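Researcher: Please predict.
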Amino acid sequence: MATGISKNILLVDDNPLFLKILSQAFTTAGFNCYTAASGTEALDRLHTFKPDVILSDYEMPGMNGLEFRLNVLQIDALKEIPFLFLTAHEDEGIMYTGLNLQAIDYVLKTTPFDVIVAKLNNLLHTVSKQREITEKEIRKTVAALNIKTVPATLPKLNGFEVDFWHRSYQNIPGGDFIDFIDTKSYLFIVIGDLMGKKWDAWFYTFTYLSYIRAAIRFSVITNDTTTLAGILQQINVVVCQDEGLTNILSSLSLVRIEKQTGKVIYSGAGDLPLLHYRPDTQELTQINSTGMLLGVLPDGFYTEQEIIMAPSDQLFIFTDGLIDISSGGRQKTDYRYFADQMAGYLQAGQSFTNIKDNLRQQAAGLTDDSSIIYIQKTNVHA
C-alpha cells in the first residue's frame, strides 16, 4: 500500500472476542484501530473521532448495523466515510438493503483475516487515489476561475494595523472567506465560514461575498444611514430568498472602522466571540454577538456594538477551524483552549507575525479551514 495514506479504522461488533482478534489483525497490518461494542457506542465515538473507514457488524442487540448506518448517514461530516458491513450469514435481502444505504461492501465473518485486511487496504488506496484526482481538478478549477476568497493585499488605514492568516484544509479551497471593503469614510472587515466540508462550501462563497459586497457598497453609495446590524439583516434576507442557497448557512463577523474618528463597530451572525486584548492590563476578553447564522430565518435578530479600543489594543476575529483540534485520532472543539493559548502568546509580548508562525507550526493538527484577522489600534484619533 502506498505510504502516506491515512489508515484509521472504526471496528464495531458486539462480540468482544471477535472484536479483539479483528483489532489485532488490523493493528498488525498497520492500521490505527478504534473499537466499539455497539452502534450506540460507535456513534458516541464518532463525536470525537473521524475514521477513514468503518467496518460494522450487522447483527447487534439494541441498534443493529443497518440502524447504525442510517444514523451515520444523517451526519454530514460522517456520511461520506467508506462503510462496510460484517455479517455471519449470506442473506441477499440484508445485503441488498445495506448496499442501498451506500455501503461499499459486505464482508463475511468466515473470510480469512488477511483477505479482510487486503480488502480494506485496497479500498483506502482507491479512495486516496480518487481524492488526489479530485483535489487536482479542484485546484485546476480554482486557477482557471482566478477568483479569490481571501484578499491578496492588506488594507492601509491611518491609526490601525490590519493583518490576517488563512490556511485551507489540506490546501483545498473551503468555506472560509475574508474581505476588506475600503470606502471613502469606512473600512469594512469581513470574515465568514460557510457550513460545509472542503470544496463543497467553496462554490457558494462567491455568492455570499457578492451579496455582502453589494449590501455594503449600496449603503455607502446611497449615503444610507443603515446600521451595521441593518446591513447584516439585509444580507440575511437576500440569502434566505435565494433558492440556490437553501440550507447553505454561514457565520459572518462584520466590523466597520470609521476613518475620521477611529470608531469600531461590530455585528455578528452565528460567529465565535471575538478576542480583545489590552496590553496595559494584559487582559484578554471575549466580545459576543447574538445574531443567528445567515440563511436560517429571515429575521436574524442582529445587534451591533461599539468596541472601545485604546492605543495598542488588539482585536482578533477568527473561524472555528482554529478551535477544532485533532489529537491522537480524536477531534475536539475547544474555544477556551485557543483563547488561553492566544493569551499566553500576547502576554509574552509576541507580535502577530510570531503568532502566525505558531499557527503554521500547528497546522497539521487542524481539521478545517482556519482564518484569523488581527486589528491593532496604533494611535489616538483627533
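Model: The chain has two domains: 8-143, 149-377.
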